Amino acid sequence: MPESQRDVRNRIASVRNIQKITRAMEMVAAARLRRAEQRIEALRPYAQAIRRMTREAAEAAGSLPRLPILTERAEIQTVALLLVAGDRGLAGAFNSNIIRAGVAAGRELGADGRKVTYYASGRRIASSLSFRGLEPAASFTGFSDRPAYADARRIAERLMADYVDGELDRVEVIYNGYVSAIRQEVRRETLLPLQQASVMEERHEEDDSQRERAAQRALVEYEPDPEEILARLVPDYVEISVYRALLESTASEHGARMTAMRNASDNAGTLIEDLTLQMNRARQAEITQEIMEVVAGAEALG
What we know:
Elements: H1 5-61, E1 78-84, H2 94-111, E2 115-121, H3 123-131, E3 138-140, H4 149-164, E4 170-180, E5 183-192, H5 208-216, H6 226-301
Parallel strand pairs: 1-2, 1-4, 2-3
Antiparallel strand pairs: 4-5
């Protein structure tokens, strides 16, 4: 049964209301994205410095000191996967990409005979893992819109404690790395043990002048010993790495939400145009019908 003009008019009004909401959400996400970008820009130099210092101290130490946090297991049996996403939805494939990557990584590790322990940062991740029967060992929620360093420290302390207690043999983090407002990429990094950490594989590209300055620079002398410095740096390195993942994920979430809401607003506009055309056609058909009835009545009286 074709819709009446009133029904179509009501649908247009509903879609317009939804469009107003999606536009407002897009504007809010854009404002939050700018603040998140500024926080990332402010953190990146410090994070790079900590990671570089940790790598250089490890290279200078040669053999790592015999501390629990620096102990490398002879055999990797249990791997922790920290999945970082958001507390809310309406952000396109932002949350689902992390879930898919985390589940795929779990299957890959399971196929190698390793046990996987999940840790969730974000309400959506925690609920999705529970729905799949992969109950996380710990969930951290309520701060995905604006994470603080204290949140990163809380997550890092739990991961380091479980690693030191021997419950974990390796710690990895999976999160959405921020590239631009319309592009986010899933990243997977190893945090512990330090010997296998992604920080040990980083080699920032340097131009010729930087290489010349590095070659001319005097050898670094450590006071106290590099082993003691490394023991102090590793907890900071883990905290900073988690904090960076949280900030990158937050910026990615705002960018994904802004893009999703813009697409929703555009789709709503297209739907309004289609419904308006449908309503105009229905009105024309109704007018034509009325004219035909008038003409038929006049012919019957004549």
